[in-house]
Amino acid sequence: MRANLLGKLRTGETLFPGVLGYEETVLPQVVNAILSRHNMILLGLRGQAKSRLLRSLTTLLDPALPVVAGSEIHDDPFHPISQWSRDQIARQGEQTPLAWLSPDERYVEKLATPDVTIADIIGDVDPIRAARGGHDLGSELTMHYGLLPRAHRGIFALNELPDLAGRIQVGLFNILQEGDVQIKGYPVRLPLDVVMVFTANPEDYTARGKIITPLKDRIGSEVRTHYPAALEQGVAITEQEAWTARGAHVHIPRYLREAVEGVAFAARRDKKVDKRSGVSQRLPITALENAVSNAERRALQRGEALVVPRISDVYAALPSLTGKFELEYEGELVGAERVARDLIREAVGEVFSTHLGPLNLRPIVAFFENGGSLRLEDDASAEDLLTQLRRVPELVEHTGRLGVKAGDPAPLVAAAGEFILEGLWAQKKIGRSDDKGFVAIERRPETEMDPERLERLRSMKKQVN
Q: Core-most of 48, 261, 395, 449, by most CB within 10 Å?
């Protein structure tokens, strides 16, 4: 791995393809750990591509590796460590058959759970094998190798390390420090050539278990992962991971991608959402997939050839949002669905400011202030929706700031127009009611306000002055 990594660094080849957003933070630390020949642990909240990063380590392995054919632990033909392979080579010499392993076949991954035993990881004596072969129970030929020996000359990954029982973690000491394992108390030493990598969630240290101190001390490098630092990074990750390539008839506007991603960013800073649990990157991925599916269903029902998701489709994707975050006490009081709706509204408002903030949208607001209202049905066809939107002065003309060009199909124009109205509502420039749809925002005079709210407003005004 070290040699291949050095070669890629010299040629400037892309390292760890498919892992985005870590180029300046996590990946340099991973590179340093590999160059130092360290075993390492990736420490981070859920949905931060820890498993993806571990699996991409196989790109640093040789494309093909010769092993003694039939060896359970991928023995090197020139340096076999198992008794079985040594006997094969002693009998057949240069005629010993070989097999060639791909990088993926040299990667062994295990999810740590409390019921994992030392036999699963290291190995155990197999009485049935001893009986069938006529071997003594103390013979190495009776050994059933666990996952770790089977990763010999490869990578052994253990996910969610804190979930592994403490007595099993102790069993990893010798391989981390001395580079070998012993099976079932027998003096069978296996000098394994294996890279050990782990993942853990900081919250799990107290919620479900912990990494025992001696084991942490033996892990060479601890690398902290994180969520995307910028909206653009999140959009790129979601675009890569979400299943939206459903044919040329699907078009997802850029502003809608940003709004969906903005929901995750809003959730990660919202006080009603538990930050210790984290908000997985799977939230925008599944939300976008669900929004596209809702738009796809509507297009089929309305006989439309082009599928363009609208902001109403993001609200229809609530089932893919509510299970992706844990709520604090305040959030539990209002409910997950209400929190999710508020997050969508906040995200839409931010994207709206980015794309349409400088524009003069006063004529649109005036339409509603003068008594106009607009009720948009979620399942309306693009043509029907566009007919409704054209009632609002200058609304359709402003869709150009969202990438809509003259002559674009109705689904693109309708989606952009609906987004503008949603953005104005998110910024509290217009209102919305269940029966009338978009309306003028209700501005109550101070004399009609709740006394406590009125006092808070007056206090805020004094602070500003």
A: 261
Q: Which two tokens stand for residue 398?
A: 């402003």
Domain coordinates of the chain in residue numbers?
A: 2-63+102-224, 231-439
Output phi, psi for 263, to 5 deg.
-65, -45
Whether 77 contacts 66, CB under 8 Å: yes
- Per-residue model confidence (pLDDT) at position 52: 93
In CATH, which of 2.60.120.10, 2.60.40.290, 3.40.50.300, 3.50.50.60 is domain 2-63+102-224? 3.40.50.300
What SS3 class is residue 180?
strand
What's the rounded Cα separation, in Å, for the pair 361 and 394?
Answer: 8
Per-residue pLDDT reduced to its tens digit, 348-397: 999 999 999 888 999 999 999 999 999 999 999 999 999 999 999 999 99
Q: Is the pLDDT of residue 205 over 60?
A: no
Asked if 372 and 389 count as a contact pair (C-beta separation under 8 A), the reply is: no
CB 124 within 8 A of CB 144: yes
Q: CA-to-CA distance for 306 and 317, rounded, in angstroms?
A: 20
Threshold 0.70, pTM exceeds: yes
CB neighbours of residue 272 within 10 Å? 19
Residue with tokens 């990594």: 5
Residues 264-300: tens digit of each pLDDT = 999 999 999 998 888 999 999 999 999 999 999 999 9
Distance CA(256)–CA(416), nearest Å, equals 9
Note the pLDDT of residue 206: 44
The 3-state secondary structure of 87-141 reads: HHHHHHHHHCCEEEECHHHHEEEEECCCCCCHHHHCEEECHHHHHHHCCCCCCHH
State the Cα–Cα distance between residues 86 and 90, nearest whole angstrom.
Answer: 6
Contact 225, 42 (CB under 8 A): yes
State how far Cα 78 lies from the chain centre. 42
Sign of CA dihedral 298, 304, 305, 309: negative
Task: Quote the pLDDT of residue 136.
Answer: 66
Model confidence at 247, pLDDT cuts 50, 70, 90, reads confident
N-term to C-term CA, the chain: 64
